[in-house]
Design a protein that fits this description.
about 475 residues, alpha/beta, Rossmann fold, six-stranded mixed β-sheet, five-stranded parallel β-sheet, 18 helices, about 15% strand, Thr_synth_N_sf, EC 4.2.3.1
Amino acid sequence: MRYVSTRGTAPALDFREVTLAGLANDGGLYLPDAWPSLTRDEIAALAGLSYVETAVRVMTPFVGDALSEDELRSLCTQAYGRFSHEAVTPLVQLDHRHWLLELFHGPTLAFKDVALQLLGLLFEKFLTGTDRPLTVVGATSGDTGSAAIDALAGREHVEIFMLHPKGRVSDVQRRQMTTVLAPNVHNIAIEGSFDDAQAMVKAMFNANAAGTGPLGHLRLSAVNSINWARLMAQVVYYFYAAVRLGAPERAVAFSVPTGNFGDVFAGYVAAKMGLPVAKLIVATNVNDILHRALSSGDYSAKGVVATPTPSMDIQVSSNFERLLFDLGGRDGAAMREQMAGFEASKAMRLTNAQLQGAAGLFGSARVDLDDMALAMRWACERAGQVIDPHTAIGLSAARASDLDVPVVTLATAHPAKFRDAVERATGARPALPARIGNLFEREEGYETLPATLEAVAGYIAKTAA
């Protein structure tokens, strides 16, 4: 298995190299040079398997010879052994048609744990015996940061710098990052938006690839969903859920609360591998660039509106480039030109091939605050489930669909991470699980910096070991 960049000029890499690299050195994102496939019999054989065994069978084609099957199984056993539910990602029935896929049973109560617990172990495995440490630089709109920090805190050969937009994540999300005081963990609150943070991370990677900027002495890597290994790990739960609802004999639809497009792109990968996915519903909040792109071809960024769903308060969805590349015939030169235009003007039109290619598998919805609250109340009062506001965006979009197959909404975060929003909508204030412990009594530590590349890159250059 080799991996190629969406922008066509970076060298092809194997799985080990692409995991450690993160972003391609031409500014593009890596994805497999061809999609592996599972036969109907192979998908049917997943029924009844544990999550770990499902993960091994789904991910083995992507890993190639970078890991043996036994090594991959050992890493998955370690990663998912920390989850609080034996099923790892259990399904919960809401009514005759709707289901929740609970992805928040990991150590930081969010779906990011599913991938990042494994990614931390992959970093450690691939860096063993090397004499040059890895400096991980990431941006978070809330959950990636805490999950990445938990996965990497105290690990050898890795140092992590995580940027978050000051005042635009929940108190629980912030404290899950800033109360981890391990010497290899550095939190940075920037005085700007998530899009500002993400743009700075990409700029630092691009400068390093060009041999410029103050971080040239560092070996940079990424934990954001620009890192292929993260998306690979997320493909697994689509298979795990679908086979329990009748796949491959019955198609299943998924509604995905979406910001950076990584989680729903993993569903696209599952479909390309042969999973019978009836529809992928891209559920956005009022920051609806993806809904506009998929429904009308208008991919133009507007000002970010702060909402009770901060992980979706995004206008530039990095992983969307992977989809556009695949739908556009995998033409790296055309993708490079298209993204250069977007980066210059923050606006572009999808091509006819991209728009028509997405139309069969993807649907989309824009969910406002009223409909989000209604979905939270419906889940609580009619199905006995307290859900977080991001999951409610997905559920609202799912319930508005007219699909005649099981519809699975990805429950991306534990409701206790957004206690105020849940209480406003339902009257119930969810308690933090015992495994989080005394989160609000722990000491915090982080730097506050202006949202400028000079300030953030300068701090990292000065601080990194």
